Model the fold of this input.
Amino acid sequence: MAQKPRNADYTKEYNRKAILRILRHKAMSRAELARAMGLTRAASSLIMEELLNQGIVTELAPQSVGRGRSAIPLTLRSDSYYALAVDLARKGCSVALCDMAGTVLQCRKLPVYDNLVGAMIAELKSLLEAVDREKVLGIGISSPGPLDCANGRILNPPRFECWHGVEISKLLSEALDMPAYLEHDVCAMAMHQLEMGQSRNFMLVFVDIGIGAAIMSGGKLLGNSMYFTGELGHTTIRFDGRLCECGNRGCLETYASIPALLEGTQFHDWEDLIDHVHNNPDARKLLDQEAVYLSAGLINLLNLIPVDTIYLAGDICYRYELLAQRLQREISAKALDWSKSDIRIFPAAKNPNVGVLSAAEVVFSKFFTV
Done:
């Protein structure tokens, strides 16, 4: 992609977006913003007055900071911008309208059936009626991969045949006359996790019927739409191993996905397994095995890319600490970098609407990028 010229207009737009991003997370006075941005008070105030006049930011009640005038904090209005969100999943899809503060204003779930795209478009148009259309930045779409995000096309995700080859971004963009952005569901979830502000260098690992991972380095998502991202499950941990649906052998997903792990066992799902760990040696053995399998894939990435935190997402979050302890032990024993023994392992942000919030974050992330 061609780089934008670094002229006065670019600089102004960069500073404007940077101020909005700061205010999205924390209210600040004009003086605090100037210091945070490295701008003069005059330059910062010019941008702030413009944003106030446009109704994008608002002033809060003055706060006393000692002698002299009280500081007036500024904050981003949650209704300044909106995003439509589409979360595609194997069990159906959800569409939603979200505001800049990360609030789901409306969310509707659609089961899998014929002409799902038509129903999706109808629901999105209905959601638009609730807000000023001019404030809607676009449509974020999250989907299992592999994807061609640059062209908004779903390629050939396993067990997702009804969507193979669908140019979903083009269909939605033309129907609603606004930009539509496609992103791998795990990468979108990592964008949402980044907004929680706990780490800027982390790996998010999603495990249920499939396995995906996304890496944030310095607050930037590694990978781009020109090559596959998120497909940790289709990295090889055994070259002569089980045949995977992707056509390769020995993929991590054929061993560490929950259905693969539990196949032929007495346990119905991950919760059933975990609930029996303390009194059933077979359950403990399977949990240990999951840690061995999963750590093999994780260590491949950790040996290449430094992160300080691993977030677990998906069904595997249930009582996550039991798996986290075992993963930490495996990583400490096998990773090249001894400091990986201190890596933090937490559950990803918990929210019943995390799918649509993550899809909406794809839009907001595009907006904040200059």
DSSP finds twelve helices and 14 strands in the chain. The mean pLDDT is 89. The first helix runs from residue 8 to 25. The two ends are 12 Å apart (CA to CA).
